[in-house]
Structures are given as structure tokens and as C-alpha cells.
Amino acid sequence: xxxxxxxxxxxxxxxxxxxxxxxxxxxxxxxxxxxxxxxxxxxxxxxxxxxxxxxxxxxxxxxxxxxxxxxxxxxxxxxxxxxxxxxxxxxxxxxxxxxxxxxxxxxxxxxxxxxxxxxxxxxxxxxxxxxxxxxxxxxxxxxxxxxxxxxxxxxxxxxxxxxxxxxxxxxxxxxxxxxxxxxxxxxxxxxxxxxxxxxxxxxxxxxxxxxxxxxxxxxxxxxxxxxxxxxxxxxxxxxxxxxxxxxxxxxxxxxxxxxxxxxxxxxxxxxxxxxxxxxxxxxxxxxxxxxxxxxxxxxxxxxxxxxxxxxxxxxxxxxxxxxxxxxxxxxxxxxxxxxxxxxxxxxxxxxxxxxxxxxxxxxxxxxxxxxxxxxxxxxxxxxxxxxxxxxxxxxxxxxx
Length: 400
What we know:
Blueprint lengths: L1 H9 L13 E3 L3 E2 L7 H18 L7 H11 L9 H10 L4 E11 L10 E10 L4 E11 L3 H16 L7 H6 L6 H12 L3 H14 L4 H13 L3 H8 L9 H14 L3 H14 L3 H13 L4 H12 L4 H13 L3 H14 L4 H12 L22 H11 L7
Parallel strand pairs: 1-3, 2-3
Antiparallel strand pairs: 3-4, 4-5
Helix pairs in contact: 1-18, 2-5, 2-7, 7-8, 8-9, 9-10, 9-11, 10-11, 11-12, 12-13, 13-14, 14-15, 15-16, 16-17
């Protein structure tokens, strides 16, 4: 759909008005020295560059999970030095237009010990996945304790190379991001890399403690606690993600889920409404509707209908429409919702069960505990497609 809309729009916008819509894959930087145990630096570079490019307005920069899956499928070990061919292979596996990768080298004081005062040089390279050729190369050098600034400098150079129209001066660019302490960055990344939830929480909590400005650590803590079912703790962390953070809308979305699961439906609705103001998407409308229904607000049916209008193929919206009416004892009114859910997904056994209950119109079923809390909350927010579409419509991008 995005490609079709882009083609329709292309004729009405000049080439200068339409910088190219490109997908970008950022890979972890490789350690080119003999010093071991520094993989967290390469991962930090990948995460920071990705976040900075997204925050600058580039609509399609692959997420970390997509990159990890590509490495897994191709049996590529993370953090090893990549040849041009291997980097290109990884990029092509996810259909990336551009691949950003590189390495780093500890320059001083020695290769046997690394301290915050050690000098480090980062070198970044750009590969064009469509033309199968190398592009620009740029670097940033300084002390390891200046990692936050060095990463910002690399990100700014990458933005200049990939979308110069979006790049402010480096002074303005750097001013947007606090210079997080290097030990907090290390704890944060070690938290991302940890396999066990308790280790993740320990490292991420340490990162948040070491630098109170570290909003990314707070976002990950909130996400982690939500996954663990600690809803109130999750909400506490997610509320601390500021508007300036690139993850702010996702944090608000997850906050809405945490508040909903904790039974705080008014606060949940408020969180989802904040997201809806910037991202008028069907999953957000669905969640707003469910929070409204939990408060007994008649407006929920109208809100849910808008969600279904936005994506008529999604069975969950139809199921929710039926379920909300079933909970009210309106068996006849609930029938079309469950029927629509089954027409969209014939394998929906739960919808089939509730359809049968409605056909029997048995009031006793309303009191059965296993049938409570079966509404379907959407738990994933996909900003990428919406932002691509929005930028195309507003004339900010052209299709590739």
C-alpha cells in the first residue's frame, strides 16, 4: 500500500521535495583490537546510531530484533569483524537499501588495559544494498569516557551522509542528547545483552542509578517489568521516559497496557490517548475502546468501530465488539461480532466458543470466571509504516 500511495504522489512532488525513502540497517561495530570483553561498545554504537537516525526523521531503520534474527538465520556471530561481503549479505537478507557498519580500535594507553581515559577510534562505513557497492566512510576519535559524544558525532555524520536535508549543525544535534556516563552506558548494554531477566534488571537498574538522565534505561526497565507481569513497577519506569526520547510514544503505549493490566482504566485510557494524538492507528483505538468499556463508557463502541474501519481484516476488533456486548448480556447484539471474527479467521476457536454461547443465550455463562477478561488488547505498536505513509503524504519522502 505504501508503494502504491508513493507512486501516486510522486507525480505531484519535485525531486528536491522528495528525498528518497530508504530502509537502513545498522550493524554492531566490531572490535578490531586484541582486548576482549568490549562487545558492549559495538552494540551501544548500533543502538545509538539507530535511535538517532529514527529521532532525526528517517522512517525505516530496522529494529534490533530484526537485526538479531538476520544474524541467527545466516549463522553470523555478533561483534566479529565483518567483511564487505558479509555485511552486504546480512543487509540483503532483510532487504535493506543501505547498511551502516564499522569497527573500533583502542589506541591508548595500551592494549592490555582499557580505562575511561583510553583513546578510541570509531570508523563507520555505508554499503548500498541496491547497487552492491561501498559508499562513504567516516570516523570519530576521542577518549572512551566521551563515548556518548563520540556516538553522537558518528550519528550526525551518518545523517549528513544519508539524509543531509535532515541534518542540523553538530552543535544543535548534540545538544538534543545528554552526555550519559560511560559506566551507565556499559551497564545498559550489558542489560540488553543479558540472557536472564534477573540479570537484565540488575544491569538496567544500575544504568538508571548511575545516570538519572538515562531515559533509554528506564524505557527498557519498564518494558522488562511489563513482560514479567510487574505492572505497577513497569508503569513507574515508563512514566519517566520524557517526550524528547525517541521511545516516548512506545513508552506511553506500554504504559497504557501496564495501567490496564493493573486495573487503572482511566489512567490507561489517558496514556493511549496521548499516543493516539500522534499515531491514529487501529491498535491504539482498540485499546482506547477497551479502557473506555472498562469504565462503562458508551463511547467505547464507537471507538472500536473506528479501529475496525482502519483495518477491516483484523479479527480481534470484531471479536472485541462481540465480547463487549456479550459481557453486557446482549447475546443477540454480540452475534455479528463473533461471526465477523470467524469470517476473518476461521481458526479462531475462542470466537467460535463465544458464538455458541450467544446462540444458546445462557445468562449463567456470564458468571463463569474462565470467561472473564477475554478482551483482546493490542500489545505491539508499529510506528514505522505509519511514519512512512505520513511522510509520503506530507511530501517529505519519495519512493525508492
